[in-house]
Write a structure and sequence with these properties.
There is one protein chain. The protein has 271 residues and is α/β, with parallel strands linked by helices. The chain has one domain: Aldolase class I (TIM Barrel, Alpha-Beta Barrel). It is built from twelve helices and nine strands. The chain has a nine-stranded parallel beta sheet. Helix 10 links the parallel strand 8 and strand 9. The radius of gyration is 17 Å and the shape is globular. The chain starts with a helix and ends with a helix.
Length: 271
């Protein structure tokens, strides 16, 4: 069962915009991440992007970099992230999980072992930021064999030819980066985003979701009008930063973290 395809098809049929929160696995600890994942689903998340912590997150801004540092400080590993997905699946068999991160941890584990373990855990998609499509053939073939989607990024600076190549290699959904810069930067020209999304529509039938710079209900609604869904990362991780790994975290504190997702869901549902 391809959960991303099922969820995306149901959303398209009902006119629902996809809402995809991103959290760093293990920030501030793995138990809290697990609780947070379930809370995000309660607040209206359709898909969850789970960040694999890595010491050099080059495409991420300071907010997510600090989240990664907090996760690494408590000893989070790729194996622990996969175990986290297994735990999540014990209660939730429907919500798609996409692992997002960098190539080094995957290469250290080995492509075959990673794909095997990701499949057994219940992972639905993988987005490796620093693995371009033309270098991903072996990895993608292994993922395809387990019906795990390979998701790629398209940036404002991507040429039309390159965008076509990326769209042809992608599955699950196409992730459009809304701005030039790192995660958490200010959202830029809506007209430019609209123009680029229209170009991408001619290249793929996949859902197109927009990430980078979406931080509240207003920006979620603005970008949701242009695409099939939005991704909210830094605004969520910034709230997680207020949680302490040493203290018991209450349901009220979790609700404060996920308020940004709840309000974004409301805004998207008004479109």
């Amino acid at each position: 069962m391809n959960r991303i395809r099922v969820v995306s098809a149901a959303a398209a049929e009902s006119g629902r915009k996809l809402l995809i929160p991103y959290v760093v696995a293990g920030d501030p600890n793995l138990d809290t991440t697990l609780r947070l994942m379930h809370k995000l689903v309660e607040e209206g998340a359709d898909i969850i992007e789970l960040g694999i912590p890595f010491s050099d997150p080059s495409s991420d801004g300071p907010v997510i970099q600090l989240g990664v540092e907090r996760s690494l400080a408590v000893g989070t590993t790729l194996t622990a992230v996969l175990d986290l997905v297994t735990q999540f699946r014990a209660r939730d068999a429907k919500t798609p999980i996409v692992l997002m991160g960098y190539l080094n941890p995957v290469e250290i584990m080995g492509y075959e072992q990673f794909v095997e373990r990701a499949s057994l855990a219940g992972v639905d998609g993988v987005l490796i930021v620093d693995l371009p499509p033309n270098e991903a053939t072996e990895f993608k073939t292994l993922l395809d064999s387990r019906e795990i989607d390979t998701i790629f990024l398209v940036a404002p600076t991507t040429t039309d030819k390159r965008a076509a190549q990326i769209a042809a290699s992608c599955s699950g959904y196409l992730y459009y980066v809304s701005l030039k810069g790192v995660t958490g930067a200010a959202l830029l020209d809506t007209a430019s985003v609209r123009q680029n999304i229209e170009k991408l529509r001619r290249l793929t039938d996949l859902p197109i979701v927009i990430g980078f710079g979406i931080k509240d209900a207003e920006s979620a609604r603005s970008m949701g009008e242009l695409a099939d869904g939005v991704i909210i990362g830094s605004a969520l991780v910034e709230r997680v930063a207020k949680l302490s790994p040493a203290n018991e975290i209450s349901e009220e504190q979790l609700a404060e973290v996920t308020t940004v997702i709840a309000t974004a869901r409301e805004a998207l549902d008004c479109l």
